Amino acid sequence: MSAIAMDIRRNRLMLSYLIVAVLLVLLAVAGGFLSDRFLTWRNIGNLLQQLIVLGMVSLGQTFVVLMGGIDLAIGSLVGALTVFLANFLEWRPDLIWLALPLALIAATGVGAINGLLTVVLRVHPLIVTLGMSSIIFGGTLMYRKEPGGSVPRAFADIAYTKVGGIPISAIVLVVIFVLAGLWLQRTRTGRSIYFAGGDREAARLNGLPVDRIVVLAYALSGLCAGIAAIFLTARTGVGDPRIGVALTLQSVTPVVVGGTILAGGRGGVLGTFLGVLLVTMLNSLLNFVNVSSYYQWVIQGLIILIAVGIHSSRRK
Amino acid sequence: MSASVIELSQIEKDYPGVKPLDKVDFAVQPGEIHALLGENGAGKSTLIRVMGGVTKPNSGTITYLGKPVSWQSPKAARAAGIHVIHQELALFPELSVAENILVDAQPRGMLGLISNRARHARAAEILAQLGVDIPTHAKIDELPLADQQMVEIAKALVGDVRLLILDEPTAVIAGREVDLLFENMRRLRNEGVGIVYVSHRLEEIFEIADRVTILKDGQLVGTSPVSALTREEMITKMVGRRLSQIYPPRRAAPADGPDVLSVRNLRAGPRVRDVSLNVRVGEIVGVAGMVGSGRTEVAEAIFGTRAVDSGVIEFDGKPFERKLPKGSIGHGLGFLTESRKDDGLFLGLPISANIVAPDLDAITRRGLIDRKQERAVATRQIQDFSVATPSPDVKIGNLSGGNQQKVLFSRWSRIASKLLILDEPTRGVDIGAKVEIYRIVRRLADSGVGVLMISSELPEIVGLSDRVFVMAQGHIVGEIKGDALGEEAIMDLAVRSVEDRKAGMDQHAEPVG
Amino acid sequence: MTPLDTPMQRSQSISIASVFERYGLVIFLVALMVVAAIASPTFLRPANLVNVLTIAAPLGMVVVGQTFVILVRGLDLSVASLMATVAVLATAFKATTNEAIPMIFIAAIALSAVVGLVNGWLVAKRNVSPFLATLAMMIILQGARFAYTGGAPISTLPPGMGFLASGRVLGIPVNLITLAFLATAFGIVLHRSRLGREIFMVGSNPKAAFLNGVAPDRVVILCYVICSVCAGIGGLFLLGYVGTVSNWVGQGYELDSIVAAVMGGVALSGGRGNVFAALLGVAVLVVINNLVLLLGFPIEMQLIIKGIIIIGAAAFYRTRLA
Questions:
Q1: Cβ–Cβ gap B106/A1 under 8 Å
Q2: Burial B373-390 (b: 16+ CB within 10 A, else e)
Q3: Do C128 and A312 touch (CB under 8 A)?
């Protein structure tokens, strides 16, 4: 085997990233050709503004998938939190300092419960999080069936404020992704996510606290959903129990596109970040050239399959 | 004795239907290498799992460094200075050598973050201490099996170890690597570390161990200095009876019938590079060699689950070109695979379904399963192979390992009218079942079936085979028959040729796998 | 050395466990019905019971198929989307007379078979995880359907379609007859035929199945086809019940069909399960849903209860069979 082939094999993750990055550039160029408004500052600003919600839920999903699980409760959780935030802030706009931490704590708690249930009951994470999703969704609907509530102006601003032309939310997102990447790559706890996802039994034999790692990954996913919900509520100004319905499955797409494998143990947040950019830019481009959102669904499905095809065929 | 590193007293472990440990006492002194001997299924691995905190005993006490302990997890045992090298490698194939070695002790630098440079430096240091040259950036799944094993061993040198337990570390390494391992074990012994060493190779026990404890069927047979026992005595204690009683008598005259299987210059993937062998009608042919030498892959190529690159496989005198197990089964070829659980049994299904699995045709009438017929076949096979079960409807997962293996024999002997390939046919079964299995194999051969038997247990190869081929690194390196057939002769061939090739490979390094 | 030192004790404890395992769901269902009858006199009224069963029938058809897929260690998230797509397809004929009904059935089954074939091919031949493969299929079907209808489907259907939901033959609802027929036919395939045996072998241990001469890929693909066809037929019957076509016919059936199968003891790890037990799971699910309504609780509570029982049922079977 040649040295180059070895090198590529070793850096197959890098290659995944490269492919996605090249696709991104191609998309941008294509966008520029198809519409002269696509590559304007204004549009790029809009695009960046949209990143945070999908970015955060995908990041949460990345933690869980890397650890070898899956979180299908993300969407319901985001929906429930927007309802909580909008209604709470309508009632007491002055208590925003209380509402936001409460939302984050609740989100982390729900995630931790997901993790605990998979660990204690040893039930497939798909079942646990699907069940949890149904419970949260039902509970939210019992409280509020229709979108409602409102948010104070100051809160709405966090979604729209820009610093030097760049939305704050995008900066927050980048900072969080950098921290997450550092944590995963350079701390012992972060690495243990990879160990648990790579081979759970081996991780146990190597003396790693596997159960705690599992719970931690789900808790982080919950926390990410909480952050997503805060920005989503700020942007829309209402609490909508159904707003997260599609988000669960959307959170999986960037993860898969970014080369993280569903079996766990391989991948990373950089891939997810690129995946989020790709999905967001593609949707934006399709809107620009007036492709109906219906076809965007078809395209999203195809992207998942193509991504899985590319990443898995090079695995051997 | 309070000076022991670890002292186990009256340890019991129960599973439904089996009792892997029955009131076992075991103690390791600081600065000794203590060999743990026993047949497969004698309870060695369970004892190791108890010491390493993987399994909790049902009763009994563990005293470690003078204090009673009750490990809740491998983590607790490790934190206290117990390092176990398990038989199955506990490595992460997608991750680097350095990361695997320092799995729970990654060096931290600035801001408490793991330092990549320090990680590789420390890993390289440990590998150098061990005496091997493995690139720390390589991913585990790029390494040959022997190097993977050395990485696993390197992990033991990371922390402050007081008790080191090695479960068959030499199964996949040979020659220089074994020497390096022993050197390091002696060094650790001199530093006062207590070492538990498990190996099937008695000559290694004599070379390195100070004392030996022998287990049989989950019970303690005894502990004594190695020098106080002869090889014969060890075997007799381990097995519980004399060797002559274990193996059925060999056939009187060497088989001179036609070849049922003839393989010439077979190449199949990286692990099968040049293999020629033959099996005559009614003959038991052994295939010996290290794990990873390509034995299993040869069997897979013959059976049709591995693509053949070049070479000839003749079956019953005719070129044999089938691509799938289905065709092989139709020709009267059976393959009892190495791992019962992974690719042999249908654990959730009843015994009867497991028996008839390769031959559904025989019990199918107009597309429907004839249950009466299935039951009849299963009942007959259960009797023939004396499987201990109340009914063929019992789920096979509820049987003991030995009985599961007998079910697999009853499955394959039914359809293997010409040739039966056995890969590690007695792995994990007790001695009673072993003796029965040996008789079954001999009976099959006597009825005219050719048997190709792959095994890592040399006594079994020597005791049962009419002829033996020795494999090393994808090549058949020798054939032994008649009076020359002995464990030493086989080891000699296997190890020497590995070393020869290693020497040759150093000139133009070529990654395997 | 035999593991059967005390055969009496062991067989007894096994039999109690297995009775509970086998009949636990029946006992649970009967208990639920008793509670329902006590809580609300309406429950046992024929009109209500027929209504419950009518709701149960299309779900039952989907569950029969879902069972096949779960048995081979899979999962089909595209069933609900397929049901709606089949419903839209039924309107594509713009037929106002009953002559079109056979055509509609043939087209629906053909479309379903193709969908199943693609799912199965992705899973078996391309090694895509069932979750991702059927998820992608779900979204693609959804997009295609919306694109075709432009978001506003027409509801031109032959009048006879309603017969599928409310019609009776000899006093028995026709959808129940169809379900019984489907369940029996596929039950025989699964539990009596050679193919069924191969399905259990592949689900229990795909590698061992291959080594025993079975072609696992073919078996897996077949299971996905069966699942999609069942879902497609279920979609037509559901359409008959709903009467009007929407882009969301069958929404939630992917979750419900998995809940019912898991409740019926079909193991997500594959190789263990029974079509008829899975249908009992359907009965439990619809009785619970009905009970929630009869007791005057908000309908959303069904979602909460569903979530709890799926986790609870999975945990129950896990500990039972560990």
A1: no
A2: ebbebbeebbeebebebe
A3: yes
B194 vs C99, higher pLDDT:
B194
| C6, pLDDT greater than 70 | no
Note whether C215 contacts B388, CB cutoff 8 Å: no
Q: Closest residue of B to C269, CA-based? A: B348
CATH number at residue B130: 3.40.50.300
Is C272 part of the contact surface with chain B (CB cutoff 8 Å)?
yes
Q: Half-sphere exposure of residue A77, counting CA atoms within 13 Å on the CB side?
A: 37
pLDDT digits (tens, 9 = 90+) for B415-439: 999 999 999 998 777 777 888 899 9
What local confidence, expressed as pLDDT, does residue C189 receive?
Answer: 95
The overall average pLDDT reported for chain B is 87
How much is the pTM? Answer: 0.88
Output the pLDDT for position A313.
52
Reference C237, options C283, C177, C286; nearest CA is C177
Q: Do residues B276 and B234 share a domain?
A: no
Q: How far is A183 from chain B (nearest CA, A)?
A: 8
| Position with higher pLDDT, A203 vs C91 | A203
Do B162 and B30 fall into the same domain?
yes
| Residue A135 sits at the chain C interface (C-beta within 8 Å) | yes
Residue of B nearest to C201 (CA): B346
The pLDDT of residue B512: 38
Could you report the average pLDDT of every consecutive run of 10 residues in chain A (316 residues)?
Answer: 47 80 90 84 86 96 96 96 96 92 97 96 91 94 90 88 88 96 92 93 91 97 97 93 89 92 89 94 86 84 85 51
Look up the domain containing C259 and give its range: 46-321
Calpha distance B41→A224 (Å, rounded) = 48
Nearest to A253 by CA among B13, C139, C175: C139
Report chain B's C-alpha Rg in angstroms.
24
- Please determine, for residue C4, whether its predicted confidence score (pLDDT) is greater than 90: no
Cβ(B388)–Cβ(B381) below 8 Å: no
Residue C123 lies in a domain: yes
In a mutational test of the B interface, the residue from A185, A188, A316 whose CB has the highest number of chain B CBs within 10 Å is: A188
φ, ψ (nearest 5 deg) of residue C154: -90, 160
Domains along chain A?
A: 40-314 (1.10.3470)
Neighbouring chains to C with at least 3 Cβ pairs closer than 8 Å: A, B
Q: CATH number of the domain that C306 lies in?
A: 1.10.3470
Find the CB nearest B91 among A182, A202, A209: A202
* C15 occurs within a structural domain: no
**CA A230/CA A107 separation, integer angstroms:** 11
Please indicate, yes or no, whether residues B91 and B129 belong to a single structural domain of this protein: yes
Residue C26 lies in a domain: no
State which residues form the domain around B384: 259-505
In chain A, positions 91-130, which contact chain C (CB-CB < 8 Å)?
A: 117, 121-124, 126-128, 130
pLDDT of residue B492: 81
- Taking CB atoms and an 8 Å cut-off, how many pairs form between chains A and B? 73
Element (H, E) at B286: strand B284-289
B194 and B327 co-located in one domain = no
C208 at interface of B, judged by CB pairs closer than 8 A: yes
Select from C182, C163, C161, C168 the least CA-distant residue to C50: C168
Q: Which residue has the higher pLDDT, B171 or B133?
A: B133
- The pair of structure tokens assigned to A81 is 């939190």
Within a domain: residue B1? Answer: no
pLDDT digits (tens, 9 = 90+) for C250-273: 778 988 999 899 989 898 889 999
Domain count, chain C: 1
Tell me the average pLDDT across C286-295: 88
Tell me: do B216 and B271 sit in the same domain: no
Q: Are residues B30 and B134 in the same domain?
A: yes
- The answer to whether residue B378 is domain-embedded is yes
Q: Which residues contact B380 (CB under 8 A, 6 or more apart)?
A: none
Q: Is B357 on the interface with A (CB under 8 A)?
A: no
**pLDDT tens digit sequence for A30-42:** 888 888 888 888 8
> Which of these, A301, A293, A280, lies nearest to A23 by C-alpha position?
A280
- With CA atoms as reference, the chain A residue closest to B513 would be A1
In a domain, B250, yes or no: no
**What's the gap in Å between the CA of C308 and the closest CA on chain A?**
6
**Is the ipTM here above 0.95?**
no
Name which of A132, A263, A309 is nearest C307 (Cβ-Cβ).
A132
Same domain, B225 and B293: no
The total domain count for chain B is 2
C132: nearest CB among A136, A137, A304: A304
Residue B237 in domain: yes
- Mean pLDDT over all residues of chain C? 86
* C78, part of any domain: yes
